[in-house]
Amino acid sequence: MTIHVVGGGLAGTEAAWQIAAAGVPVVLHEMRPVRMSPAHHSAELAELVCSNSFGAKASDRAAGLLHEELRQLNSIIIATADKHQVPAGGALAVDRAVFSSELTTTLAAHPLIELRRGEITQIPEGIAVITTGPLTTESLAADLQRFTGMEYMSFFDAASPIVMGESINMDIAFRASRYDKGDADYINCPMNKEQYLHFWTTLCQAEQAELKEFERETAKFFEACLPIEEMAKRGEDTMRYGPLKPVGLTDGRTGERSYAVVQLRQEDKAGQLWNMVGFQTNLRWGEQTRVFRLIPGLENAEFVRMGVMHRNTFINSPELLHPTLQFRQRPTLLAAGQISGTEGYTAAAAGGWLAGTNAARLALGLTPVQLPPTTMMGALFEFISSASPKHFQPMPPNFGIMPELGVKIRAKQERYAAYRDRSLADLQQWRNSVPGQLSIVN
Questions:
Q1: How far apart are CA 294 and CA 203, in angstroms?
Q2: Fold of 3-153+315-441
Q3: How confident is the model over 94-136, as pLDDT tens digits?
Q4: CATH architecture classification, 162-309
């Protein structure tokens, strides 16, 4: 049985390699150079279209832990990145041209991998993996839309930052729901008039990130995703009549209503991550940290995802996917990479590893595997398959999505090291217990 992988980015390259490593034939479909995307510059597999960095190397950082997990699982993406890394301080950065060229040559030479150039406009039959990323073509996106029943697939997305709950100053912020609807579901950061005006002025003057040309052409169609800085520029009180409106919110400690209130909504089941409601933004990341820490209660905020604004395509994974990355309504179809709701190069490789592994296991008559939720990979795929579908946005790897340790460790570096130690120990134990082991987990 031949498996079809659609998309030759990081996720698709990893998926195809893991399928072939398991002894199963695979066709890897990549439309370039027959049809180029607006963001790519070459026909190579696994082209890095933005930065050449895979994030922090250190295994007590979220990205670094993900690197180490993938090394233990024989990821071809991370092995090739390690081989072609360039000096970048504490980050794993690569010579992007050599990195992509070697992966293209390696996969094309594998006897079980057929690299087929040309656009795929419909979901393939049989066992298939979709890894087409944020620039999925209109025709395939339309077919995915029909298959999933989603109202839309491709849109211009402006996403809000997410902060670690433990970094919010609850001596200032307070828990409440507007008009007491719900069980104090939101964290609220109150502002007096002086604080609000200072924040408003600074926000209006902050530096925005530059959009790519094809994104500038799209942005004007998406008024509903208006960035907070654009809203601020429409007038001094625009935010106060929008996401920062104080109506219906009273601080139980003082009994007073504030001049403006920034609300944060719980992002994960454990309540460790909080989304800044209405703060979709196109500010540069350094500017986001500087400006948003002016909000009372967020002066020491630790951001696990910065706000982003770009053309995007992703499915509502909490409604559609299992943590195995199989579609619930069609288990022989899997998704990986940014289209599944993960964010970042290493997360794409991780999704490709799991989707490729499980596609191969299906072809071999084996049960698909689910990674332990105490690993970074397992936590990430558990999150995208169980988060609130109403507010779902792509998520990068971060320690906030991992199950708590069970013991309180105040020092952040020591706490993250404990997450790492637990993750790698559990991954090793899991590898040794997988029934019907493939070559990739021997």
A1: 10
A2: FAD/NAD(P)-binding domain (3.50.50)
A3: 888 899 999 999 999 999 999 999 999 999 999 999 999 888 9
A4: Beta Barrel (2.40)
